Amino acid sequence: MRFDDHRVVITAAGRDFGRTLAIHFADLGAEVFLSARTLAGAERVRDEIRGRGHERVHAFACDLTDPSSIREFATGVARHTDRVDVLINNGSRYLSGPDLLSASDADVVDTLASGGTGTVLTVKNFLPLLLNSPKPDIVTMISACGTPGHHRSDAHDAFYAAKTAQTGFTEILSKRLRPRGVRVISLYPPDFTNPDPLSEDWDKTPRGPKDPLTAQSLVDCILFAVSQPRDCFIKSFHFEQV
């Protein structure tokens, strides 16, 4: 499975699962446009990937709570390419604490803005580039917290609200963009392990039926979905929670 002819945008790729995705897409030949809240964070991952021999990787700052920052990210990508084939909405602030009163108003606003408003505005600003692609896919990392009735996480209520907003947005987006050939793919994982993809732990992490979900399996799901023929619209991935 190669992605040499793909141009992939990944938000919040300065660490954790976003970094994992950026490294794997680059290893498979894609041209990668990665963002992080700070330019230094994005450049650090860019340099890691270039150190692996992949030159087609670009770093940008993007604060998903700031509409102007999102617009600048999309404008910056448009200076390098006339199309985007895959947009991965990976960014969303996590807020812990099952007590509604435990978070400040500022934390609540930041959480809702990054997950809800940030996702909507990222898609809005990148949609023209996606529509220039013959194979456009929008992938959103939501969470089991975005599924109706879920209550097993210790995440704050505001995080649940942000993830529910992403669910509602991607549901309607899938229906409205399908006639234009854009596939909208959502993932709803519970907590999962995310070993460093450049460490020995990546290949040694247990992946049996009694083990928690791994980043490796999530990467495999995304690669599988975006590599399918264009008549195959995989709308979502839901996972059993151990």
Task: Kindly describe this structure.
With 242 residues, this protein is an alpha/beta fold. The chain has one domain: Rossmann fold (3-Layer(aba) Sandwich), CATH 3.40.50.720. Helices cover 41% and strands 14% of the residues. The protein has seven helices and seven strands, in the order βαβαβαβαβαβααβ. Strands 3-2-1-4-5-6-7 form a seven-stranded parallel β-sheet, sandwiched between helices. Strand 1 (7-10), helix 1 (16-27) and strand 2 (31-36) form a beta-alpha-beta unit. It comes from Nonomuraea maritima. Keywords: Oxidoreductase.
Which structural class should the secondary elements be placed in?
A: alpha/beta
| Average pLDDT | 97
Instruction: Output the strand order for the largest sheet.
Output: 3-2-1-4-5-6-7
What is the overall silhouette? Answer: globular
The CATH class turns out to be: Alpha Beta
CATH superfamily: NAD(P)-binding Rossmann-like Domain
The run of helices and strands is EHEHEHEHEHEHHE
Uncertain residue segments:
none
N/C terminus separation: 30 Å
Q: What fraction of the residues are assigned to beta strands by DSSP?
A: 5-15%
Report the strand count: 7
What profile does the largest beta sheet have?
7 strands, parallel
Estimate nothing, just give the exact number of structural domains.
Answer: 1
Might you state the CATH topology name?
Answer: Rossmann fold
Radius of gyration: 17 Å
- Number of H- or I-type helical stretches: 7
CATH-level-2 architecture: 3-Layer(aba) Sandwich
Query: Can you give the helix content as a percent range?
Result: 40-55%
